[in-house]
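User: Please fill in residues for this 207-position structure.
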């Protein structure tokens, strides 16, 4: 069923994809497994876009279907803590408007008991710094789906250092082209490959 779901998303078949999401829930398939199937579909859509088989409008529509699927899935994500484990300021790097992955990280962090301040997309370094000053978070998280997201992430981390906040926050990075090497080069504390790993890392940082 999950493979079929990925395929329906790739085919941009909104009705069938959403019906399958509901069916998967009623068959007690874990929401995270359903999300994983949707992500697989998105990866294929990305490849098709890169191969010029799909247009940008196809990626826009796929993102809409993903959002609708998340509307169905979010109430089924279980809250695992009622106490606040820590504060996280998060956003998508400047110049980048991809937010599906970031939103997933935000949802799972909230379920795990973190207070999350989501700055949205295309966030300039100064806005991160302003929020860090105001909120004094435990963690700052950057999401970036474009290779060009590296510069603004590294720039923000440098600014955190310059403004004297670097020692008091842990910096976590993630998103499509991001990896361990990228994290090290940008002087982040950690890289998370997906939303589940992001929560595990956040717990470690605040534990
Ligand atoms: Co665009 N796009 N896109 N896109 N898009 C990619 C990223 C791309 C890889 C497609 C491709 O060519 N194969 C490519 C980037 C190439 C590159 O830089 N190397 C690309 C491009 C080129 C572009 C445009 C430049 C296209 C154009 O205009 N010519 C343009 C850029 C706009 C901009 O940002 N300035 C663009 C636009 C768009 C849409 C707006 C149409 C739409 C986004 C809609 C939205 O987000 N609201 C879109 C989409 C949908 C995609 C793909 C197909 C899917 C992304 C996605 O949502 N995946 C994508 C292809 C791909 O990723 N394979 C592609 C599902 C999501 C659940 O996964 O975001 O990876 P992901 O998040 C995961 C993990 O990465 C991790 O956890 C998440 C959940 O497990 N994670 C974190 C994410 N953030 C984290 C933060 C953390 C920790 C973990 O800590 C803080």
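Assistant: Residues filled in for all 207 positions:
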């Amino acid at each position: 069923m999950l493979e079929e779901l990925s395929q329906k998303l790739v085919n941009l078949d909104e009705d069938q994809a959403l019906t399958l999401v509901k069916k998967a829930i009623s068959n007690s398939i874990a929401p995270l497994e359903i999300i994983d199937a949707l992500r697989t579909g998105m990866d294929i859509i990305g490849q098709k876009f890169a191969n010029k088989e799909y247009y940008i409008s196809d990626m826009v529509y796929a993102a809409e279907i993903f959002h609708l699927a998340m509307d169905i899935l979010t109430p089924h994500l279980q809250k695992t803590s009622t106490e606040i484990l820590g504060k996280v300021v998060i956003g998508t790097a400047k110049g980048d408007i991809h937010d599906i992955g970031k939103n997933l990280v935000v949802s799972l962090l909230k379920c795990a008991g973190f207070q999350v301040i989501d700055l949205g997309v295309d966030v300039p370094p100064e806005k991160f710094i302003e929020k860090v000053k105001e909120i004094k978070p435990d963690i700052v998280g950057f999401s970036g789906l474009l290779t060009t997201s590296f510069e603004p992430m590294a720039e923000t981390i440098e600014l955190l250092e310059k403004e004297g906040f670097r020692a008091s926050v842990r910096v976590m990075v993630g998103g499509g082209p991001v990896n361990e090497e990228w994290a090290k080069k940008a002087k982040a504390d950690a890289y998370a490959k997906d939303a589940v790993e992001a929560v595990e890392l956040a717990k470690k940082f605040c534990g």
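For context: The two ends are 38 Å apart (CA to CA).
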